[in-house]
């Protein structure tokens, strides 16, 4: 308490009560999430009969029957690769396009700059369902329906939030860095790639994770744009299992676990960079 007083950060009793309330709520939410996740993982190692008789208990015997069925008998491996390609390429293209757009907005003055900024901000206010029909017609005219490239184009165009975040960060980077690089003969592309991108690496990781999670878990757009079985993503495969849950009960849990693995690995590998990106933006903003 004395340390907080020296720093001028005296917390009132009401503030402490609010902090405790939100801490308890977040703790309960975390515990419930871990319990649900743990139960899902355990259920994926049960046989179908064991799952029916003992859904919430410990498995009588750990078996890989569900994983063998889903990986060997079904096309789940292909669905996994489809999701990986769409999410990886879509996220990369979205990040690069957003970073370059934000660089132009934050570093240059041009006619219509405010209109472009407002247009991007308005893009965050409308749900994707509003634009499904125009997107469908555009992909149809481009012959990109039932094509992974069409989904990559759609995901790459979702730059409203990333542009806003990158713009805020670029405004905190001194323009003198750009000017000194130009004096050394560097062009705009060199300044962008070799100076600004390395500086905003934590922000890139943060935006990439947020974007990748949204694209990996997306169900609505693939359902509308991908009708062919060969280009289905994981969310469409899981939807097929969930519509016939009693038939694919054990397989459904295994599919969910496999779908969660890439996101959990990504967060575990890059959690430090993500936290740096969030805290760095908070301090510099």
SSE arrangement:
Elements lengths: L1 H5 L6 H31 L4 H6 L11 H9 L2 H32 L5 H11 L8 H10 L6 H9 L3 H13 L2 H9 L4 H12 L1 H16 L3 H6 L8 H10 L5 H36 L1
Helix pairs in contact: 4-15, 5-8, 5-9, 5-12, 6-9, 12-15, 14-15
Strand content: under 5%
Please tally the β strands and state the result: 0
Uncertain runs: 1-8, 281-285
| Biggest beta-sheet profile | none
Give the overall shape, derived from the CA principal axes.
Answer: globular
How far do the termini sit from each other? 28 Å
Radius of gyration: 24 Å
Order of helices and strands: HHHHHHHHHHHHHHH
Helix content: over 70%
Q: Given the structure, what is the number of helices?
A: 15
Structural class: mainly alpha
Overall mean pLDDT stands at 83
Write a brief structural summary.
This protein has helices at 2-6, 13-43, 48-53, 65-73, 76-107, 113-123, 132-141, 148-156, 160-172, 175-183, 188-199, 201-216, 220-225, 234-243, 249-284. The chain has 285 residues and is mainly alpha-helical.
Core attributes:
globular, disordered C terminus, mainly alpha, 0% strand
How would you describe this protein?
The N terminus and C terminus are likely disordered. The chain has 15 helices and no strands. The relative contact order is 0.12. The chain is mainly alpha-helical. It is globular and about 70 Å long.
């Amino acid at each position: 308490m004395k340390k907080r007083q020296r720093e001028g950060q005296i917390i009132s009793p009401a503030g402490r009560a609010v902090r405790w309330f939100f801490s308890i709520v977040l703790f309960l939410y975390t515990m419930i999430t871990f319990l649900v996740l743990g139960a899902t993982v355990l259920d994926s190692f049960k046989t179908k009969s064991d799952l029916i008789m003992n859904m919430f208990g410990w498995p009588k015997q750990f078996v890989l029957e569900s994983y063998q069925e889903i990986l060997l008998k079904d096309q789940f491996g292909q669905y996994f690769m489809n999701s990986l390609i769409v999410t990886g390429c879509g996220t990369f293209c979205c990040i690069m396009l957003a970073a370059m757009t934000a660089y132009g907005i934050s570093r240059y003055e041009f006619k219509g700059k405010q209109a472009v900024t407002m247009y991007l901000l308005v893009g965050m206010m409308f749900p994707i369902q509003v634009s499904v029909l125009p997107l469908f017609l555009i992909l149809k005219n481009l012959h990109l329906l039932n094509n992974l490239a069409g989904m990559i184009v759609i995901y790459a165009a979702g730059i409203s939030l990333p542009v806003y975040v990158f713009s805020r960060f670029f405004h905190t980077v001194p323009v003198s860095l750009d000017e000194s690089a130009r004096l050394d003969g560097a062009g705009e592309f060199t300044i962008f790639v070799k100076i600004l991108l390395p500086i905003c690496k934590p922000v890139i990781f943060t935006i990439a994770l947020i974007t990748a999670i949204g694209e990996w878990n997306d169900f609505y757009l693939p359902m509308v744009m991908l009708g062919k079985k060969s280009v289905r993503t994981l969310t469409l495969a899981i939807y097929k299992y969930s519509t016939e849950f009693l038939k694919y009960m054990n397989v459904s849990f295994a599919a969910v676990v496999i779908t969660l693995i890439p996101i959990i690995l990504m967060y575990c590998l890059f959690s430090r960079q993500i936290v740096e990106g969030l805290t760095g933006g908070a301090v510099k903003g």
